[in-house]
Structure formats: C-alpha cells, structure tokens
Specification:
Blueprint (H helix, E strand, L loop, with lengths): L13 E2 L1 H5 L1 H11 L2 E6 L4 E5 L2 H8 L4 E2 L2 H11 L24 H9 L5 H5 L2 H17 L6 E2 H6 L1 H11 L6 H13 L3 H24 L5 H7 L9 H32 L1 H9 L4 H11 L9 E3 L3 E3 L2 E3 L4 E4 L1 H4 L34 H18 L4 E2 L21 E3 L2
Parallel strand pairs: 1-2, 3-9
Antiparallel strand pairs: 2-3, 4-6, 5-11, 6-9, 7-8, 10-11
Helix pairs in contact: 7-9, 7-17, 9-13, 10-11, 11-13, 13-15, 13-17, 15-17
Length: 411
C-alpha cells in the first residue's frame, strides 16, 4: 500500500510508482492533513496538490490558477533545480485551448465545441455500435485461447477508431498514436515525451497540408475551414488542437472502459446487478468516472498571484495540480466514497473537470463507454479476470489513470 513516508530529503511526498499503483491511500492521508499540500514529481518538480472536493472544484474554476503555456514554462523553469530534467513538449503542440486562458481559450473553444454538441455526438451512435459489434465478434473468435487483453482487443481500438474517423485520420497510424500518447502522458521521461510530441507534430503538419489540398467531410477539414468573421486557427493552433483531440479523444475512453470493467470484476455483486438490469449501465459509467476516473491529476496550472486554498496560502508563480481522483473520493462529498456502487448519486463529480476547461469531449466519452460496456456485458455475461487481483498494474502516469493490460476470460 502507498504511504506518505515516500519523501524527498526536504520531507515532501513523491508522486512515484507506488503512488501511481494506489493513489487512494495517499490521497486520503493528504486530504486529512490539509486541502493543499506540496509534493514532488518523479522528475524532481515541486508542485502543490489540491485534494479536497470543495477546494478542488473552486480551483478548477478560479482564473488566478492560470493554464497559459507561456507563463507555465517560466513557472516550471523557476521551480526546478538546474540538474533536473526539463519537462515540456514540442512547441508545435503547445498552443491548444487546454493550455490557454481567456480570451485565447474562449476563441479556440468556440471553433471546436460545435463538433461535440449532444446532437452531433448522438449522430455517431450507429457507427460506434457497428465498431463495437465488430470488435466483440473478433474477441469472441479468440475466446478459445483462454484469455485476451481487453485493452488491446476492445478498449483501445474502439475510441481510437472513432476519433480517427471523426477527425479524418488514416486508421493505419493508430498504433503510432498509441505509442506517442503513452510517452506523452507518462510523465516519467521528459525526453521521451518531447520526442513523441515532435514525431506526432511532424505527422500532423503533413496531414493538415494534405487536408488543405484534399478537403473531406471530417472534423479536421472543418477545423481548417472553421471561422467566425475573419478568425481562423493558425498553423500551430491547428496542429496543437488536433494533438489535444487525438490524445484526449482516446485516452479518456480507453481508461474509462478498462477501469469500469476492472471495477465490475472486483465487485461481483455490482456486476450481477448490472447484468440483471442493463438500464444500470449509465450509472455504471458515472460511478466509474467518480470512483476510478480516467484522469488522476488534472493538467498543470500555476498561480498568477498569491492564493488562499482553505487555510493554506500558495504563493504566486507556484505549480498546482488538482487531484480529481482524490476529490471524487472525498467523504465530505460522497458517503462511503471508497465503495463502488452503480446505484449511487454521482452528481457533481469532477472526472471531466469543472469550469471553462470542462472536457469538451465528455458527451462522446460517455456515449462510447455506455455502448461499449453494455454490449460487452450482453456478449460476455461470464467475463472474468484472468490474473490475480494483485497482478493488475497501472500505467505510470500521474495524469492518466489507466491499466497496462487487462487480461480477461470472455467465458
């Protein structure tokens, strides 16, 4: 189990692999201490972590916690020692709306939000159903092998195919995107993240140029042509936006599906309840988002001035992470928060964030997860874990909360 005693010589807790394997024990300790606590990443970067629900929700909507990537770079440089590895991505993928404050954020979000309205997302349902059926039949064909990796066979290919089709990206590059995305979100090797972002940016620049020459009926062409009055996305903004949509568009759903299945397999009475009544699937999705959401710690912010978080004062220019996984298990918000209950009210959970940076792709992630989990349970009602509970490992990432593999027996 994780303990808070994993610290630096300065006494700061470290967001290490033990934390990644079980963040919930340490989160509970941090919540009990204070609403905000300074910690250190494995690369040596000191950051403040916000752990309690009320404070987390407030910080997510507080403009004094800036997301502007230009100021962020300066805050990172100031916070780290001279011998620490420098974090960061290729500049070509930095200029997206998640890395900006208003008015830049407002302008960029207006150009993409129309693609993710409830009506536009619902129109994708038949295609998502079709891909889901195809993947489940392929999985059934392999059932005789005894076990399959649910991530490789189902949870990963479904959302990557959907987002690639939506954007108009050739499916034959999906394995490259998985490799690039894994490196980008890991957070353990800044140089690997930089190389991955450079490779992805180079491909996206080439793809954008191809779409300009050969426009199609897809979101990428729409982003190239989109505008209000004379506004257009600049070249770097366009590449960065597609970078963000690709990573967020599949990482969130891969982990939501995988984490939901694991939670069911670890809670057989809940699995039985959903199996008996498929109308519980939307509740299953929302409880998975609360209980073991696909994002662990939200992306970095920094204080543009000194800010009080509860009784803790965070100075100007400090880096801040909001722990969505901790806030969503705060007993002051949810009774019996450490229990997985598909019938509970999950209203107000922060799995998709809060405020102006609330995840624009949330309706698509919910739709994909609901279809995937319902059809999976219908097709394989006797699904079981093919390894011991202690053999399940989580990918190293303080940003994303997702499994390395999920070996199952389809039954």
């Amino acid at each position: 189990m994780s303990t808070i005693e994993h610290t630096t010589p300065a006494g700061l807790p470290v967001l290490d692999d033990e934390f990644v394997q079980d963040p919930h024990v340490r989160n509970a300790q941090l919540r009990a201490e204070a609403p905000a606590r300074k910690v250190v990443t494995v690369t040596g970067m000191p950051v403040w972590v916000i752990t309690r629900y009320a404070e987390a929700r407030a910080v997510l909507a507080d403009a004094r916690f800036s997301k502007d990537y230009r100021g962020m770079r300066a805050a990172m440089e100031a916070s780290m020692s001279s011998d620490s590895p420098r974090p960061g991505f290729d500049d070509a993928v930095q200029a997206h709306m998640l890395n900006m404050d208003p008015p830049d954020h407002t302008r960029l979000r207006k150009l993409v939000v129309k693609a993710f309205t409830a009506r536009r997302v619902e129109a994708l349902r038949p295609r998502i159903e079709e891909i889901t059926t195809e993947l489940l039949e392929s999985m059934a064909a392999r059932a005789g092998e005894g076990e399959v990796d649910l991530l490789d066979e189902f949870a990963f290919p479904l959302p990557i195919r959907v987002i690639c089709e939506l954007l108009g990206i050739p499916e034959d590059r999906r394995d490259d995107f998985r490799e690039w995305s894994n490196a980008a979100v890991a957070g353990r090797d800044p140089e690997a993240a930089r190389v991955a972002s450079e490779q992805m940016a180079a491909y996206l620049v080439e793809l954008v140029e191809r779409k300009r020459r050969e426009p199609a009926d897809d979101l990428l062409t729409g982003l190239i042509e989109a505008g209000e009055d004379t506004d257009r996305l600049g070249e770097n903004e366009l590449v960065a936006m597609v970078f963000l949509l690709l990573i967020a568009g599949h990482e969130t759903t891969v982990n939501l599906i995988g984490n939901g299945v694991l939670a069911l397999l670890r809670n057989p009475e809940q699995f039985a309840a959903v199996r008996a009544d498929h109308e519980r699937v939307p509740g299953l999705v929302e409880e998975t988002l609360r209980y073991e959401g696909p994002v662990n710690l939200a992306t970095l912010r920094f204080t543009s001035e000194t800010v009080a978080v509860g009784e803790v004062e965070i100075p100007e220019g400090e880096l801040v992470l909001v722990s969505l996984s901790s806030a969503n298990r705060d007993e002051d918000k949810y009774a019996d928060a450490q229990e997985f209950d598909v019938d509970r009210s999950t209203a107000g959970h922060l799995a998709f964030g809060h405020g102006i940076h609330f995840c624009v792709g949330a309706p698509l992630a919910r739709l994909e997860a609901q279809i995937a989990l319902r059809r999976l349970i219908e097709r394989f009602p006797d699904l079981s874990l093919a390894v011991g509970d202690d053999d399940v490992r989580w990918r190293f990432s303080t940003l994303m909360r997702g499994l390395e593999t999920l070996p199952v027996r389809p039954g």
